[in-house]
Amino acid sequence: MPVYLCRWPNGDCSLVQARSKQAAIIKLDEIDNAEGGPLIRLDECQVHFRLTDEGQLELQSFGEETESGLWHFCYPVLDGVLTDKAPEQWSATEREAVRQAVRQERDRVTPADVPEPETELGRDIKNQMGASTVVVDEIVRQGSEETLRKLKPPRKPH
What we know:
The protein folds into 2 domains: about 5-110, no CATH class; about 115-150, no CATH class. The protein is elongated, with a radius of gyration of 22 Å. It starts with a strand and ends in an 8-residue tail after the last helix. It has helices at about 20-30, 65-75, 75-80, 90-110, 120-130, 135-150; strands at about 5, 15, 40, 45-50, 55-60. About 45% of the residues lie in helices and about 15% in strands. By secondary structure, the chain is of the alpha+beta class.
């Protein structure tokens, strides 16, 4: 199953495994509305975690291709100013360049216009919940199917 990389407008990013881009948007809805934001399918995805002595998992590293793709897609401005030096070895100028790049990255992405839900009910739900159109359309579809299942058609006369 494919893995998708979502770049959030605030600068964060998420990885999600899903069958399609729409399925990824639906899964990401538990974090926020990913609709209209940059979302790409990754050809390679490798993530390594370390088990701490406290029984917690912490990110250890990404595979080379995953990390390269992540920086290229999510943080091209920041990638251009980072060096191989550890942050504690940065000069004041390098530190300021990184701070400026982080600010630019956080302001760089704005969600694109997205289609409205298919129904008036869907548009009302979207306005109230702030959920993505694909999530709202799915809610309305499932609710309609459930309502139709509960309806008993009148008996035909013999």
